[in-house]
Amino acid sequence: MTITTDRALWIDADYDRDRASDGSSRYGAYVRQHLDSFAECWDGTFEEDLKVHFAETAWRVATGPIMVPGYVRCHRRIMRTELAYSYWDGSLLAAVDLVTPWPAPLTESRQWMEQSGRGRWSDWLVEFGDALCEPSDQDLAKGPFLLTTSSLRLAVPDGQLPLPPSARQAPHDLADLARQAVATAVREIDRVVRPVIEALEHR
Prior knowledge:
The chain is an alpha+beta fold. The chain has one domain. It is built from eight helices and eight strands, in the order ββααααβββααββαβα. The chain has helices at about 15-20, 25-35, 35-40, 45-60, 105-110, 110-115, 135-140, 175-200, and strands at about 1-5, 10, 70-75, 80-85, 90-100, 125, 130-135, 150-155. The strands form three sheets. The chain has a three-stranded mixed beta sheet. It has a three-stranded antiparallel beta sheet with strand order 4-5-8. It has a two-stranded antiparallel ribbon with strand order 6-7. Helix 2 (about 25-35) packs across helix 8 and helix 4 crosses helix 8 (about 175-200). The protein is elongated, with a radius of gyration of 20 Å.
């Protein structure tokens, strides 16, 4: 689900509470449904790497395709978000794919359209008010599309990530820790990505 805003990422706490099957938190219910995935964080993981692996799992559960709409909400330009463990230095890495305008060489000259022999090319579709969508098979039957994106890759400071307890002490309900991990990642990623989105929206 996307909403028009200059924020890159945020958590809709009201929706999470109002749509909760357990009366408390929709995301918390999903965490409990995926305890096996969280348990893998302790499997062969060094203690200093545990909080990064835990945040990676918490994020995966908080976003599509597991949660739709996600616990983490995204600006309409964001097509994908992903967290991953860095095998270089054990840090937390983020990948954010954004819908971007056509590059200047393509917009300043349309000769490439003529040379391709395909006629007029279309950009990303806008549906449901302002949502950016990929073309369907039916759309492609009518003509070609040129869909441009930019992939932002960055390290997320992990100093504020919660440190889960040892495997022996791990609580059955990890929802609070998962929410803390996701909130920390959202805050750090939004801080970096928001200026990029603002530049694209107000160019």
